[in-house]
Design brief:
about 220 residues, D-Maltodextrin-Binding Protein, domain 2
Length: about 220
């Protein structure tokens, strides 16, 4: 019998944000660990971060690097959880003392996607009309889009993926930019009345798109 198989059983506590997308990622990690270490029990402990609570202010104006991670970090440092699952792109550059980047899962699709309103269902990014309102909360995406498409109007958009899609459908935006990985994880790749097209054809630099486990 291998050392792993003979190890005493224990309960491992996994920290996660409460959002639907965060939980999809976390439950995938939980299932993989349970499959490889069946003698242990893996529990998911959810929490809301400041980034989840403050939805009426642009992320750039808040300016806190740990906006989506501080509560996860505190849970680990206080021994309330053993590790946390979070998207690597949202981790601060420097982790708090006592925490390390434990592992990185296989990379998902790194592309960004343009999701357009029904009235623009036949449009691509470069065929949207002048003055089209494009929603994004990412400074990286905003800088790239302003460089390539200065004739558009750009508005901040906050909330989880479902909330952002609802704001698009309500007519507040002509199109929004989302991560392909998030859409695919939630099974929303091409649901009408929205239309999705990838932005990579315009040579917008790709983002980091991995999940990580911090311990």
């Amino acid at each position: 019998m291998s050392p792993t198989a003979s190890a005493p059983s224990r309960t491992v506590r996994i920290g996660s944000r409460k959002s639907q997308l965060a939980l999809v990622q976390t439950h995938w990690v939980q299932a993989e660990l349970q499959k490889h270490f069946p003698q242990h029990t893996f529990e998911v402990h959810t929490m809301s971060t400041q980034g989840d609570i403050i939805l009426d202010v642009a992320l750039a104006k808040i300016g806190d690097k740990g906006l989506f991670t501080k509560e996860l970090e505190t849970g680990m440092l206080n021994n309330e959880t053993d590790f946390a699952v979070h998207s690597l792109k949202d981790l601060p550059t420097n982790l708090p003392e006592g925490l390390i980047l434990g592992c990185v899962t296989e990379r998902e699709n790194p592309a960004d996607a343009l999701v357009v309103h029904e009235k623009h269902k036949d449009k691509q990014l470069d065929t949207l009309p002048e003055g089209a309102v494009i929603g994004t909360s990412s400074l990286r995406r905003l800088a790239q889009l302003r460089h390539h498409f200065p004739h558009f109007e750009f508005k901040d958009i906050r909330g989880n993926l479902n909330t952002r899609l609802a704001k698009l459908d309500d007519g507040g935006y002509d199109a929004i930019i989302l991560a392909v990985a998030g859409l695919e994880r939630l099974g929303m790749g091409d649901r009408p009345p929205r239309r999705r097209t990838r932005c990579s054809g315009h040579r917008m630099p790709r983002r980091r798109s991995r999940n990580s486990a911090s311990d």
